[in-house]
Automatic annotation (TrEMBL):
It is found in: Membrane. One of its GO terms (cellular component) is synaptic vesicle membrane. Its main location: membrane. The gene is Mctp2. Gene3D superfamilies: C2 domain. Keywords: Calcium, Membrane, Metal-binding, Repeat, Transmembrane, Transmembrane helix. GO terms for molecular function: calcium ion binding. GO terms for biological process: regulation of neurotransmitter secretion. Belongs to the MCTP family. This is MCTP2 protein. PANTHER family: C2 DOMAIN-CONTAINING PROTEIN, MULTIPLE C2 AND TRANSMEMBRANE DOMAIN-CONTAINING PROTEIN 2. The keyword Manganese does not apply. InterPro entries: C2_dom, C2_domain_sf. SUPFAM superfamilies: C2 domain (Calcium/lipid-binding domain, CaLB).
Length: 204
């Protein structure tokens, strides 16, 4: 019930130079649980923003009244990576030793915010639901931890996809839950949901 909402939410998106350069933003309104209406869209060209500083942007909504006020900062990624299984970051014994030293008990209070990191190997999925008329799916896997999100590539026309990717997340809250969701890519349409699993970090 507000025409001037304040969300004050922060989201971290991991931007890689070989990916899409445009941040797409949509504003929606809800009448009830079933009805939603698009109030407008706007776009931010990431490559045009100065790095290592916070940019205050007032973005008018396209073809609709109103605007969005946002703070956007582009900074080098730290502790986040996507790699192939054969070049797993923890596969190097020297790096493993450095990590063990960094998080040993005597260094626990050196940096309170540096809780640790989580490394996830996404190998494959088995017997997925067929989302296409052809009896196949175009699955990809999305990993979310807190407000961090990374995803695999899409394996086309396959119900038993193999991704063989390694994902590394910095941990900001030990009570976070790792959510792993499999979607079916559907061209320009929103992806279809194929399944999900939630793993509390405290259970690892």
């Amino acid at each position: 019930k507000s025409a001037n909402p304040q969300w004050r939410e922060q989201f971290d998106f991991h931007y890689f130079s070989d990916r899409k350069d445009i941040l797409d933003i949509e504003v929606w309104r809800k009448d009830n649980k079933k009805h939603e209406e698009l109030l407008g869209t706007c776009h931010v060209d990431i490559t045009a923003l100065p790095t290592k500083q916070t940019n205050c942007l007032e973005l008018p909504l396209e073809k609709h009244p109103g605007s969005l006020l946002m703070l956007v900062a582009v900074a080098p990624c730290t502790g986040v990576s996507i790699s192939d299984l054969c070049v797993c970051p923890l596969g190097d014994p020297n790096e493993w030793q450095q990590i063990s030293q960094r998080y040993c008990i005597k260094n626990s209070f050196r940096d309170i915010k540096d809780i640790g990191f989580l490394q996830v190997k996404v190998l494959k999925a088995v017997d997925l639901m067929a989302a296409d008329f052809s009896g196949k799916s175009d699955p990809f896997c999305v990993l979310e931890l807190g407000n961090d999100m990374l995803q695999t590539h899409t394996v086309y026309k396959n119900l038993n996809p193999e991704w063989n990717k390694v994902f590394t997340f910095p941990i900001k809250d030990i009570h976070d839950v790792l959510e792993v969701t499999v979607f079916d890519e559907d061209g320009d349409k929103p992806p279809d949901f194929l399944g999900k699993v939630a793993i509390p970090l405290l259970s690892v």
